[in-house]
Description:
The complex is a heterodimer.
Chain A lengths: L2 H4 L21 E6 L6 H12 L3 H14 L1 E7 L1 H13 L3 E5 L1
Antiparallel strand pairs in A: 1-2, 1-3
Helix pairs in contact in A: 2-3
Chain B lengths: L4 E4 L2 E4 L3 H8 L1 H6 L8 H5 L9 H33 L3 E3 L1 H21 L13 H22 L1
Antiparallel strand pairs in B: 1-2, 2-3
Amino acid sequence: MSFEALAMPQAxxxxxxxxxxxxxxxxxxxxxxNDPVNLFDYVIWVLRELFGHSKEKAEKLTSQIxxxxxxxxxxxxxxxxxxxCYRLHRHGLWATLEK
Amino acid sequence: xxxxxxPTADGIRITLPEGLVGFLKDVPTALDHVGANDxxxxxxxxxxxxxxxxxxxxxxxxxxxxGELDQSRAxxxxxxxxxxxxxxxxxxxxxxxxxxxxxVLVEIRLALAxxxxxxxxxxxxxxxxxxxIVLDTLAELQLLLLTAMQS
Lengths: 99, 151
């Protein structure tokens, strides 16, 4: 018996059934909004703790939230962005998602 | 109030005056019903529409996440209550427990502020003196604990 005979038969190549209407824009922005209650230092700490931002970046984002009303603190695929939102809500921050 | 939260090798040592313990013991009870009633001004603050322009996606998100969020908040409050039972004598909590205590302090301040009608910073000026002291005390506790956690 030749080695060729032992080889696995080649399966026909079939194009996967892909729904072309599925949203392929995978990046979602995680937005934190200003609120009059959460403390500046606390927001900085949360952003560093949850996203590993540097002190400088967390301070800059927190300042942006305070002065401009909102800041994009992270982005990523929808599932990750939703989890980010969950963690921010768990820490009492006002967070939403947008494309 | 500077020595209420002291960093140690094992975490944070918490020692609170009995009066403060009594005040804080009411906190988990005050939070028990947050979100259960739409008429509660704090409900919206604890149930943020993460897709502000897509009700269907928002409902779907909360269908999956609400139970988990409620459960984790309840666990924080329960741990908070246990720590308070020993806080007058002094108790050492782990870093993870300290995080949970901080989250509860944040939650109660958010809930109280919402119930007192604080929507913008200038609303603080119109608060009753006692209400303002309560919010300030909670803020000070947050900052003291945060400082100890970062030491």
